[in-house]
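One thing: can you check what follows?
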Amino acid sequence: MDIFKKESVSSYMQADAKLKKTLRTKDLIGLGIGAVIGTGIFILPGNEAATHAGPAVAIAFLLAALVSGLVGMAYAEFSSAMPVAGSAYSFGSVVYGEIVGWILGWALILEYFLAVSAEATGFAAYFNNNLLSAVGITLPKALQAGPMEGGVINITAVVIVLIIAAILMKGSAMSTKVENFAVVVKVAIIILFIVVGVFYVKSDNYTPFYPAEFHSGLFGMGGILTAAATVFFAFIGFDALAANSAETIDPGKNVIKGILGTVAIAVVMYVTFSFVLTGIVNYKQLGVDDPAAFAMQVIHLSMFNKLITVGALFGIFTAMMTMFIGGSRLVYALGRDGLLPKSMGTVSKKYGVPEKAIFVATIVQAVFAGLVPLSELASLINAGTLIAFAFISFGVIKLRRRKDIKNTGFKMPWYPFLPILAGSCSILFIFMLPRVTQISVTIWLILGFIVYFTYGVRHSKLQQKN
């Protein structure tokens, strides 16, 4: 048994040949914006302004986006060199060895599944509080929240997970058509919020821009850095783009365009949206589940309140879809390699999708969405993301040293400075996460080691090779 045994790129590409290549740059940007502009923009700016940074939350988003852009280039280089399913898991298995690849995959399972569940609870908050209430419908308390919040099950969150699963079962061509349409709608509504909201900005709400109550840590920047670490949840969508490399036409060119295009559009929207939101409403009032819609209520624009709700629902829907795709492809990759039951690694002949992996993802995500509140879910997502970011950034150095892996596509500039900078920033943000998050993820990783040594290593196809 050699737990550091490395997988070959050729074996992955051969196994993934059954997946259909249908995605182009515009589809990847649609998927990326679909994931990045979701619960992140409609909920996180308000929550982080209220709890960590005040109006300076805009700076937190800028910092998170800059680091995400650096890490995105590392992902793009890996995708160009090895266009396979599984993203960081597959990349890690090739350059670091199976045990590291497994831990990255295990961390990303937490990221993807909980991200979809968190998005679903965010969707339910907007749908129940702003749409159903507008037509005089109020769900019973038992159906609005799980047991941790005094209910039985968040039925709206469960239903939206099931609807998205049904769409994804029909193949990537169908899902990207739905996603591209929804992205256009939500981006238009976000722009409308910014254009209308800027006329209601009060300069007093920006004073103080970075409230003293949040000053802590290095040079008093602890609040902004903690907010930046937390809002990484908003930028994890580009990892899903790398996970779709095996289904991308000419990934050497299209993946980097998709990733950088996604980050560029997202940073402009997040920073502008956050700045306008905190200008309309004092940051102390923004710790609510639907801050954008709340802001429209404060300035008595009920019509725009409903439009924001529609935009939020479209935004969260597309974010869920992208993360659902990424998570199911990761489960497929782990099943393909024998680290999870091999049935997870099968592909539907009719639609060319890993239907059993989608089914498992649906069950897990629906259970979490129905029973666990958004705050508990969101707090766990970022640590797994940042662990993968660090390994993939530093992994570029190991990738360049591999003479057996040819890359005629994108390569990260300013090597090795940028890979080291991206990895170091990712590690810094891990230490800036709340302590409870760090402890919870450590427990999850220990569980991952247990699963690997009791099941994975005994069924691994790589370990069975001579």
Observations:
- The mean pLDDT is 82.
- Residues 175 and 300 are 37 Å apart (CA to CA).
